[in-house]
Backbone:
């Protein structure tokens, strides 16, 4: 049986037995948090448990590496929507040790793209359109620096509401231990 068929079969029972009732919550984050984290599968349940986050407590944004690659891209827009429209008051960026984005090699990925059947014409067209695939597909060299870079983009964004604390953490995907890299409260105090 394929994945979608399995999902649909399970979902039918999930709805019939009203298992959804345990997950009802407001669309507004109870703990007033926006969390940007990595899409790593090890963090799916570990991160919320390690942070004492339950369903409805936070707006959680996931992408490869917890990276904000463009200050006016969809990730930053989601952060701002969480703050302005969904009543969040703080932002936490959480990266993790052993992140695949730290080892991501653009040349290797471009070769994989070609091997999976994307036409060289498509790649050439993108390059001629001004899209630097090597830059766009390149990872970062250090997980901690990746978190700090994302924190800096958020913290220095011209549309960020004044006095919003922006924190940075890194989690151990084996144990759930968190390390605070950037304390948004102390950074606020020094800017006052």
Residues:
């Amino acid at each position: 049986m394929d994945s979608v068929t399995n999902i649909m079969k399970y979902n039918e029972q999930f709805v019939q037995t009203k298992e959804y009732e345990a997950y009802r919550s407001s669309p507004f984050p109870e703990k007033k948090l926006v969390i940007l984290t990595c899409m790593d599968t090890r963090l799916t349940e570990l991160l919320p448990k390690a942070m004492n986050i339950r369903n409805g407590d936070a707006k959680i944004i996931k992408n490869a590496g917890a990276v904000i690659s463009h200050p006016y891209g969809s990730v930053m827009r989601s952060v701002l929507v969480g703050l302005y429209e969904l009543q969040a008051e703080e932002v936490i960026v959480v990266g993790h040790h052993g992140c695949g984005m730290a080892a991501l090699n653009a040349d290797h990925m471009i070769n994989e793209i070609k091997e999976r059947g994307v036409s060289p014409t498509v790649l050439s067209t993108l390059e001629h359109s001004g899209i630097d695939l090597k830059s766009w597909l390149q990872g970062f060299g250090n997980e901690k620096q990746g978190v700090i870079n994302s924190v800096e983009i958020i913290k220095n964004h011209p549309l960020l509401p004044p006095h919003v604390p922006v924190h940075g953490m890194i989690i151990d995907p084996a144990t759930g231990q968190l390390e605070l890299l950037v304390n948004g409260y102390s950074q606020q105090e020094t800017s006052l």
